Amino acid sequence: MKTVSSLLDPEWHERYKRISKLNIRSSIYDVTNRCNLRCKGCFFFSSGEDQAASEETDTKKWEAFIDREKERGVNLAILIGGEPTLCLDRVEAFYRRLPTFCATNGLIKVPRDRFPDMMLGISLWGDEKDEKTLRGKDAFSISSKHYAGDPHVYYLYTLTPNQIGKIDRIVKKIKDVGLKVHMQLLSNDEGVDGFSWKPEELAAIRLEMDEILDSYPQTVISSKYYHKIITTGKMFNRSFGWNECPSVTEPMDHRNPRPKRLIEFIRWASDLETMHRCCTSITRDCSTCKDGAAHMSWVMVNKRMHIRTTKDLQNWIEVYEMFAKLYQFIPW
Amino acid sequence: MMSRISGNQTGKETNSFRKEWKFSEILAERGVRERWEKVRKYFFLRESTYDMSNRCNIRCEGCYYYEGDKQFAAENKNPDSWRRLMQAEKARGITYVVLAGAEPSLAPDLCRICFKEFPLGSIATNGLKAIPADINFKIHISVWGNDDTSARVRSAKNMLIRQIENYRGDPRAVFVYTFTSNNIDQVHEVAAILAEHGCKLTFNVFSAPVGYRGDLRHTPETLGETRKAMMDLLTAYPGNVLFSPYNAVAHTHRKGLHDLYGCSYPRRNASTDIGLGRSFRQYRTDLNWDRAAACCVPDTDCDDCRHYAAGSAVVTARMFRHAGDPQTFKSWLDYVDTYLSVWVMDYHKGANLSDRMAAPPENEIF
Ligand code: SF4
Ligand code: SF4
Ligand code: SF4
Known about the structure:
The complex is a heterodimer. Chain A is an alpha/beta fold. In chain A, about 35% of the residues lie in helices and about 15% in strands. Chain A contains 13 helices and ten strands. In chain A, the strands form two sheets. Chain A has an eight-stranded mixed beta sheet with strand order 6-5-4-3-2-1-9-10, covered by helices on one side. In chain A, helix 2 packs across helix 13, helix 4 (about 60-70) packs parallel to helix 5 (about 90-95) and helix 9 runs antiparallel to helix 10 (about 225-230). Chain A is globular and about 55 Å long. Chain B is of the alpha/beta class. Chain B has helices spanning about 25-30, 30-40, 80-90, 110-115, 145-155, 160-165, 185-195, 220-235, 245-250, 255-260, 275-280, 310-315, 320, 325-345, and strands spanning about 5, 20, 45-50, 95-100, 120-125, 140-145, 175-180, 200-205, 280-285. Chain B has a seven-stranded parallel beta sheet with strand order 8-7-6-5-4-3-9, with helices on one face. A two-stranded antiparallel ribbon of chain B has the order 1-2. Chain B starts with a strand and ends in a 23-residue tail after the last helix. The interface between A and B is medium-sized, with 26 and 25 residues. The structure holds iron/sulfur cluster (SF4) (3 copies).
C-alpha cells in the first residue's frame, strides 16, 4: 500500500509534518453591509447579500458571539463584508480573540499600533484603467501607499479574461512596493464584462500564472497545481461543483451523500444570526464558480486521493502550504 | 496531460528522453511570440449563429439545413424583432454573429440589421446573389466541385463564374471548397480559376448529416487523398489559399473532430460552465433556439464531423493541450491564424510557422 512516508523524501516529509499539525478550522464573517466602493461584479452587492440581514452594531454582542465561535472550535476568522475596515471595533473584537484575516479594498489604512500583525488581503481588479472602470477608482495607488513593505499584507488579484497578457506588469508593480500577491479567477456571476471564460482563455491564463510564479517566486504565493485545479475545475477525474464543494455552511448542508468538507464551517451574516449558503453568493451557479478558497479547500480535504504518487502528494502539500501562508499559519 | 516531444530534437535535453517545455521557452522560438500576441487579441470573440431564411435558390445534395426540423421554422421577417434579438445577444456577451440558414442573401435587410448591431460577423452564402457592399461581414461562398459537379449535385449552371463575378476583388469574400468523396480531383481546376481571378480560398470537408445515405461520405482513402490535395494547393497557391498543414491534419484525420478534440458545442457538451457550452446558441428563422440541437452545423452526424466551422471553435478551444512543445504549439497558432483570417474582416493571415504536418496531441498523424 502507498503511504505518506513511502512517497516522500525526508525534506518533503518535514514539510508534510509541519502542515499536518495545523488542523485549521475557519469560518467567514460579514463584518458590515456597507462599503466605500461599489465595484461592478462584486457578488456581495449584486446578489443582495447586503440586504440579507441588518447589521448588529453593538460591539458587546459581537464579542459574545466571537467567544461562542471560539468555543465551537473556530481557529481562523476570515472577515469579509462589505468593507470590514469601516468597523474597526468589530475587527478588533475578532483580532483580540482569534487568528484573524481581513479582506479589504485598502482605501482605509488599518492602524498597525492597534493591529500589529493582522493579515490583510487587499482586493485588486487589474491595472489602473481596469480598476477605474470596474471600481471607479485606481484603488491600488492608494492601498500601495498605505501598506508598502508591510510583511502582513498581500494583494488578492482577481483575474478576468481581459487580464490575459497583463499579469506581469501588475505583479511587478506589487513587487516594487514590497508586497506579495495571490491570484484568483473571476466567476463573473452577473455575466457582464469579460463574460464567461472560454477554454482557450483559461488555458492562456493558466500558462501565464505558471510563468509568473516561476519569474517571481518571492512575490507570488501560489502553486502550479492550484493553477491547474482552478482553471480546469478538475481533480483527477472529479469535477468541481455543488456535489464536491467543501465550503458549504455546515448547518445548511443537506447533501446526500456528503462530500468531504470543511469541519464546522459557517459563513455568518452581519446580524450574527443569518447564515449564508457558502463562502460566496447564493445566486452563484456552482458550475461557474471559480472561488479560490473553495478550490483550495477542495484539494486540502481530499488528502487521501493524493496519496498516489510522489508528485500528487507533493502537489497536495504545496496547496496546503499556500493556504497556510495566506492565513499566516506558517511563514512566507 | 501535456504532450511532450523527444529532447534530442532540440538539443536542450533535460533527462534521458523527454523535455518538459516551459511556455516562455516555446514563446522564445522564432516568430512564435508575435503570432501569439496577434491571435490572442481575438480571444474575445464569442459567437452565435442565426438562420436568416428558410428558403434557398438552389437545393444541394447533402445540405444539412434541409435535414431535421429547423427548415420548418416560420420566418420572422420583422426588423424590430431582429434588432431586439441582436441587442439582447450583445447584452449576454455575444461579440460575433454567423448568419446562415438556408440562403441569407435572400434576406439582405435582416443581414443589414445584424451588421448595424455587430461590427464582426460572417455570412454563409452560395454566392449566386450578391450581398450588398455595405454589409461588411466576411462572406463565405460555398463551392462543391467544378461546374459539372455543381450542375449535378446543386442543380446550378456555371456556378463558379457567377460566384466570381459577384465577388471578385471583394475583401469580404472567401471561397470555401468542400471536399466530398467524389470531387477531390476537381479542386485543382477550381483553385486555378480562383487564383487567376485573385480570389481567396479555404477548405471544408464534407460531414454527413445524421442518417445520410448518399455517396459523398468520406472513407479513409478519400480522406488521405483530400489531405494530399490540400497540401499540394497550399504549396501551389500560397497567396490565395487560407490554410495550414495542421488544418489539413485536423480536418482529414481518420478520427472526426469530436474524437480528436472533444467538441464543446452545446449539442455535444452538457456542461454550461465555460466557453461555447455556455454562450453558444443557434437561432432558427423563428428566433427560437434549442440547447439540445445547438452547434454550428446542426443535424450533422458528430462521428463524421470535420466541418471547417466546427473546427474553428473545437480546435481553438484546446489550446492547453497544444502548448506542450514548440512544434505542436506552432501548429495550433497556424490553425488559429487561419481561422481568424477566414472569419474576421481586416485580419490578415501570416505565413505559416510550421510547414510540416504535426499529429494532434495524443494521436497519430492520420
Ligand atoms: S471593495 Fe469589495 S466589498 Fe466593496 S464593492 Fe468592491 S468588491 Fe464589493
Ligand atoms: S457557489 Fe462556489 S463556493 Fe458556493 S457552494 Fe457553489 S461551488 Fe461552493
Ligand atoms: S456536428 Fe460537429 S460541431 Fe456539431 S455538435 Fe457534432 S461534433 Fe460538434
